[in-house]
From TrEMBL:
Described purpose of this protein according to its UniProt entry: Plays a role in vesicle-mediated protein trafficking to lysosomal compartments including the endocytic membrane transport pathways.
The RING-type domain, residue ranges: 791-839
Origin organism lineage: Eukaryota, Metazoa, Chordata, Craniata, Vertebrata
Domain of life of the organism encoding this protein: Eukaryota
Residue stretches of biased makeup (Basic and acidic residues): 1-13
Protein name in the entry: Vacuolar protein sorting-associated protein 41 homolog
Entry-linked PROSITE patterns: CHCR, ZF_RING_2
Pfam families named in the record: Beta-prop_Vps41, TPR_Vps41, zf-RING_Vps41
Length: 854
């Protein structure tokens, strides 16, 4: 709750959010509101003394002896006049059907809210507490306890009579009691006791720490967290006790249960009430402080703290000061803290006020973030919890965030957030655009305007484009390039650009943009003219994309001047649309461009431009001599006589040599090499290529009186011509450079040839011997002769039908078989016979290998 000043008006004091918190960045854990309606009416005439909370309703006791049943909104549903004096305690069973009430005049009543069941008893002393059994609604649990000077247990017995029994006495007044399951905990002047109702044994005594505090002024607060965990708050001390089962071996005469204090710590202020919150504690504290004006100790606003218990201390999670009515006059005993277990609701009761504390939900979290102007975090929280939040809408938070950014002057960030927040809502988009126009920030939002799904009215886009056209040509050009042409009225924008070009006709940015607009409007011819004028790189893309080849037939020179490589590639890729003849014709007056085109055409296909090969000779000679010789070598359609004429005119020796050799005039070619180039190595290479003895002879004759040439010949001639032919012709006394080295090289080459021959001979002999051995092994193998074999001459079975008769059979290595008498008689002196079929005239595979006689 926001902290309120002392001079706050009554209307503000009664607002629903009056508990206070520090002005820090830490978000509070709880939210507060007054319990109003009937409660307000009651507390205007009476004062609250106690209250009990059930999940279905509330029960409020007052100082004038009234008990009111209230709904959770504070509306009165039922009223009971119990006593003329203060109600000390109200107790409800778990079902909420039975109530126990005790008052300062000693009256105790236990009755059914929906039945006629009732118990009345009046004691001679004030009864401070009453507690009905949690399961009182069941017949065998009709029990309740009261506490004054004694702790009495009442049980309904035979004939519906109530039988009292003393559970404890002698240690002062019983001031608090809490019944949970089978365990009863109570506090008197000496400390806190716990009774096990099953064994009827007292299982612990937790003594009071600070005995200097009056127990009637600083009463003990008790709270069961669960069936086995008791929380005790007294003075400024907190103890959390756990009820545990005793091991059988430890029993002897001891109770079967014992209590262990698991957490214990002190607080800064006096405790008026406590309640569990998951694994944390909610503590209501009574605070005293020194007045700055009077310097006298006075009552301050009570505090509601959430702490995390530690073994010997605690960690404060949150702390709120509560502005309750009349807090200046209240004492520690005047405050009470009750809670509803299932809903995490905490009720702070004071004589003049009842405040409800709730755990903050996601809506409250978003409220706090918005209050702290943390809009981005609020938006993220709303997106995560959009199914659970009830109070807030993501769109409203987003719009507030955009407005906040605009107010801070962060226009670009605000525009960027519009994409996410406004989504597909065209009305909101248009509203925000006009808002940005009012503050002169249309440029900021231009980059983030939707271009597809949704699409805004054309007027919006045109308004932005006009803004850029007036002040930023480059930005205007960027938008035209990025935005689809159907977002705005193209005619209007084109006219606007034309008007600006009248003032600045050479502005390249506007010209380029106008070409793009013409393209969107499908006026490609005009766009192409501008692109060519600007020599813009997109001209080729435009031609390809929109198939503008018919429009560029008379603009080929312009394209070639702009980028000859791209232009030639495009023309060659689209020969079907612009023919080779048309291109050559258009480039007739620009032979250097004509050469570039024909050269690339020749590289792609040697035969396509064959009709222009004669023209290309002159073009290569004029503009690209390095590629002339490769062209002459690769072209099969080039007229050699024309090429020779041009090369001789321009004194292109290498090309002339090639042409002469190709035309069969090798001797003239060699002569030109020797006389014009004076390059013996090239002459030798040429002679090697031609492999003509007459050329070698001419080369030797030409070189015989030139010592450097002789050296070159001696170094290279050895493998093609006998060096002796050259050496014999050298004149005596002629000085030849490096003669010794040349002769040594000749000898080395000769030795190398001899070594190669010997090596080859060894390999040949070894292979021959190996093959001979293999043939010998093969010929030594036996050959199967059986009844299925026939004589290759008479075609009768090779073996006689009567095996007892004598016969002669000849079997050749070729596997042909003959009767001996069927073989022709040999005229030679040698007795070796040969297969008649294989017609072997020399000794070989067909020679006879076996003669069988019997």
């Amino acid at each position: 709750m926001a902290e309120a000043a002392e001079k706050e008006t009554r209307s503000n004091e009664e607002s629903t959010d009056e508990s206070e918190e520090d002005e820090s960045e830490e978000e509070p854990k709880l939210k507060y509101e007054r319990l109003s309606n009937g409660v307000t009416e009651i507390l205007q005439k009476d004062a609250a003394s106690c209250m009990t909370v059930h999940e279905k309703f509330l029960a409020l006791g007052t100082h004038y002896g009234k008990v009111y049943l209230l709904d959770v909104q504070g509306n009165i549903t039922q009223k009971f006049d119990v006593s003329p004096v203060k109600i000390n305690q109200i107790s409800l069973d778990e079902s909420g059907e039975h109530m126990g009430v005790c008052s300062e005049d000693g009256k105790v009543q236990v009755f059914g809210l929906y039945s006629a069941e009732e118990f009345h008893e009046t004691f001679d002393c004030p009864i401070k507490i009453v507690a009905v059994h949690p399961h009182f609604v069941r017949s065998h649990f009709k029990q309740f306890v009261t506490g004054g000077k004694k702790l009495l247990l009442y049980e309904r017995g035979w004939m519906n009579r109530w039988k009292p029994s003393v559970l404890h006495e002698g240690e002062g007044n019983i001031r608090n009691v809490k019944w949970r399951g089978h365990l009863i905990a109570w506090a008197n002047n000496m400390g806190v006791k716990i009774l096990d109702m099953i064994s009827k044994q007292r299982i612990t005594n937790v003594p009071r720490d600070d005995i200097s505090l009056r127990p009637d002024m600083y009463p003990c607060s008790l709270c069961w967290k669960d069936n086995l965990t008791l929380i005790i708050g007294w003075g400024n001390s907190v103890k959390i006790c756990s009820v545990k089962e005793r091991h059988a071996s430890e029993m002897r005469d001891l109770p079967n249960r014992y209590v262990e204090i698991v957490f214990q710590f002190d607080t800064e202020f006096y405790i008026s009430g406590l309640a569990p919150l998951c694994d944390q504690l909610v503590i209501l504290s009574y605070v005293k402080e020194i007045s700055e004006k009077t310097e006298v100790e006075c009552c301050a606003r009570p505090r509601l703290d959430i702490v995390q218990p530690l073994p010997e201390s605690c960690e404060e999670i949150s702390s709120d000061a509560l502005t309750v009515r009349g807090f200046q006059e209240n004492e520690c005993r005047d405050y009470h803290l009750e809670y509803s277990e299932g809903e995490s609701l905490f009720y702070i009761i004071s004589p003049r006020d009842v405040v409800v504390a709730k755990e903050r939900d996601q809506d409250d979290h978003i409220d706090w973030l918005l209050e702290k102007k943390k809009y981005e975090e609020a938006l993220m929280a709303a997106e995560i919890s959009q199914k659970t939040i009830k109070k807030h809408k993501i769109l409203d938070i987003g719009l507030a965030y955009i407005n906040h950014l605009v107010e801070k002057g962060e226009h670009d960030l605000a525009a960027r957030k519009c994409q996410k927040i406004l989504g597909k809502n065209t009305e909101l988009w248009e509203f925000e655009v006009y808002k940005f126009k009012e503050i002169g920030q249309l440029k900021a939002i231009s980059r983030y305007l939707p271009r597809r799904d949704p699409v805004l009215k054309p007027l919006i886009y045109e308004m932005v484009l006009h803004e850029f056209l007036e002040s930023d040509y480059e930005g205007f050009a960027t938008l035209i390039k990025e935005w689809p042409g159907d977002l705005y009225n193209n005619t209007i924008i084109v006219q606007a650009v034309v008007d600006h070009l009248k003032k600045d006709p050479q502005n390249r940015t506007l010209l380029r943009t106008l070409a793009e607009l013409y393209t969107y409007d499908q006026r490609y011819g005009r766009a192409l003219e501008i692109y060519l004028t600007l020599r813009h790189k997109d001209v080729f893309q435009l031609i390809h994309k929109h198939n503008l080849f018919s429009s560029i037939k008379d603009k080929i020179v312009l394209l070639m001047d702009f980028d000859s490589e791209k232009a030639v590639d495009m023309l060659l890729d689209n020969e079907d649309k612009i023919s080779i003849d048309r291109v050559v014709e258009e480039l007739e007056n620009r032979p250097e461009l004509q050469h570039v085109y024909l050269h690339k055409l020749f590289k792609r296909d040697h035969h396509k431009g064959q009709r222009y090969h004669e023209k290309q000779i002159s073009l290569y000679a004029e503009y690209d001599r390095p590629n002339l010789l490769p062209f002459l070598r690769d072209s099969t359609h080039c007229p050699l006589e024309k090429a020779l004429e041009i090369c001789q005119q321009r004194n292109f020796v290498e090309e002339t040599v090639y042409l002469l050799s190709r035309m069969g005039n090798s001797r003239s070619a060699l002569k030109m090499i020797m006389e014009e180039l004076q390059d013996v190595d090239k002459a030798i290479e040429f002679a090697k290529e031609q492999d003509d003895g007459e050329l070698w002879e001419d080369l030797i004759l030409y070189s015989i009186d030139k010592p450097p040439f002789i050296t070159g010949l001696l170094n290279n001639i050895g493998t093609h011509v006998d060096p002796i032919l050259l050496i014999h012709r050298i004149k005596e006394g002629m000085e030849i450079p490096n003669l010794r080295d040349s002769l040594v090289k000749i000898l080395q080459d000769y030795n190398l040839q001899i070594l190669l021959r010997e090596g080859c001979k060894k390999i040949l002999v070894a292979d021959s011997l190996s093959l001979l051995k293999k043939m010998h092994r093969t010929q030594m193998k036996g050959v199967l002769v059986d009844e299925e074999n026939i004589c290759e001459s008479c075609l009768s079975p090779i073996l006689p039908a009567d095996a007892s008769k004598s016969f002669n059979v000849v079997v050749f290595h070729c596997r042909h078989m003959f009767h001996k008498e069927c073989l022709p008689v040999s005229n030679t002196v040698s007795s070796v016979q040969f297969c008649n079929i294989c017609s072997a005239k020399h000794r070989g595979p067909g020679s006879a290998i076996l003669e069988m006689k019997k």
